[in-house]
Amino acid sequence: MNNIYDKKQRATLIVVIVTSFITTFTGSALNLSVPAIGTEFQVSAGLVGWIVTSYMLASAAFSVPFGRVADITSRKKVLVTGILIFALCSLAAAFAWNMKIILALRALQGFGAAMIFSTNIAVLISAFPESTRGKVLGYSTASTYIGLSAGPVIGGLCNHYFGWRSIFILTSVVSAAVFYMAVRGLPKTEKKNEKIDVDIAGNVLYIAMILCLLYGLSAFSTNLLAKVLLPIGAASAILFGRHELKTENPIVELRLFTHNLAYTFSNIAALLNYGATFAISYLLSIYLQVVMGYSSQTAGIILVAQPVVMALLSPYAGKLSDRISPFKLASFGMGLCAVCLLFFSFLSESFPLWSIIAVLMVAGVGFAFFSSPNTNAVMACVEKKDYGVASSLLATMRTIGHTSSMATVTFVVGMYMGNTALAEAEPYVLIKTMHMSFIIFTGICAIGTFFSLKRK
Q1: What is the pLDDT of residues 75-106, one digit of tens each?
Q2: I need a surface site. Which of 208, 335, 362, 428 has the fewest CB within 10 A?
Q3: Please, what sign has the CA dihedral across residues 181, 186, 190, 194?
C-alpha cells in the first residue's frame, strides 16, 4: 500500500475511534446528571428517564434506513452528516430551558447518531485487510468503553462543578473536531447501486414498527397512547416482514437470517446482551447517589471500574478473536455478564461498596470478551459487499437492545414509583425497583448466552 492510502487508513481509524467514544461518552456522562436535571425542571423519575430513551428510540428507528442510504449513495457523506447533526444538537441542548426541549434535541441527536452507528464499522473494516479485522474492531470497541469510562468521571466532575449543561458543551466541541477530521481525512467513497430503487414502503414500515414497539413498551404503564401503539407496532412488524420477503431491493435482507444461523444467533446474542446490560450504569448511578448518598463526582469514580476494564481488555479480546473462535469468546463474556446481573439483583442499603466495584470489574471482563469478538463473528458471516447491511443491522441490534433496556427500566419505574420524583422516592422503593429490573435483565442475559452457545 502506498503512503497516501496508509494515511487514509489512519484517518479512518481515528474518526471511527472518536465517534465511538463521543456517542457513548455523552450517554454515560448524562446518566449521572439525571437526578440534577430532574430536580432543576421538577419532573418525575419516569419522564427524566426519557433523556436516554428518546435518544435510543431515534437511533434504533433510523439506523437501518440510513445504512441502506449509505450503501446506495456514500458511507462517508452519511457519516459526516450524522456527526454534524450530533454536534449541533449537543450545542443546542446546552441552552435548553425546559424538559421538552431537551427531549426533542436528544431525539434529533439520536437521529444523527443513527447515521454514525450505521456507517462507522462498515467504513472501518472496508479500509483494512481481513487479517486485521478483529484487531481494528478491538480498538473501536475499546474506544466505546473508554467513552463509558470517561463519561462517569468527566461527566461527574462537569456536573459537580459546572452543571449538567457543560456536558453538552464538551460533547459539541469534540464532535465539531471529529467532523472536521472526517471531512478532510476520510477516503472518498464511490456511489454504488445508483439504479436501485429505495424501498420507501419498507422504510416507513420499519420506522413505524420500531417507534411504536419501543415507545409502547417504554410508556405502557403510564400512557394510554402507548397501549394503542404497542399492538400497532406488532402489526407493523408482521407487515414489514412480509413486504421485505417480497420486494426486490429490501432495506433488510431477511433471507440472510434464514440461510445463515450463525449470523442470526450472533445478532440475537447482541440484541439480548445489550438489552440486558445497558441500564446497569443508569440504575447504579441512581443507587449510589439517591440511596447511598454519594455525590455525582464520587458515583462517577465508582462506576468507572467497569468500562476501564472493558477498555483495557477489548483490543486483546478482538485480536484473540482473529485466532480463536469468536463464538466461544463471546459466549464466555456473556455468561460472566449474566452472573454479575444476578449479583446486582441482591442490592441493599447496606451493601459493601468494595463488592459493587469488584462485580463491576468482572462485568467489564464479560463485556470485553463479548463485544468485539461478537462483532467479528457477525462480519465473518457475510461477504464484503454485505458489510454495510451487516454493520447497520448489528448497530440496530445494539441500539434496540439499549432502548429496550431503558424501556424496561422506565416500565418498572412506572409500576413501582409512578410519577414520584427520584429525590422524593423512599430508598426501599428504589431498591425494590432495582431488584425487579436486575432480575429481568438476568433472565434476558441467560437466554442470550444460550443463543450464543448454539453457534458453531
Answers
A1: 788 888 999 999 999 999 888 888 888 889 98
A2: 428
A3: negative
User: Are 362 and 334 a contacting pair, CB within 8 Å?
Assistant: no
261, 322 Cβ separation under 8 angstroms:
no
Spatial CA neighbour of 79 closest among 177, 186, 154, 219: 186
Distance from C-alpha of 382 to C-alpha of 393, rounded to nearest angstrom: 12
- Kindly list the distances between the CA atom of residue 85 and the CA atoms of 15, 219, 408, in Å, as whole numbers in the listed order: 16, 27, 28
pTM score: 0.73
Q: Using only C-alpha atoms, what is the Rg of the chain?
A: 21
Helix, strand, or coil (residue 235): helix
Please give the grid coordinates belonging to residue 7: 494515511
At 221-257, the pLDDT tens digits run 667 787 888 889 889 888 888 888 787 777 777 777 7
Please tell me whether residue 103 adopts helix, strand or coil conformation: helix
8-state DSSP, 424: G
**CB within 8 Å of 92: residues ≥ 6 apart:** 105
Superfamily of domain 3-198+249-453: MFS general substrate transporter like domains (1.20.1250.20)
d(CA 133, CA 144) in angstroms, rounded, equals 17
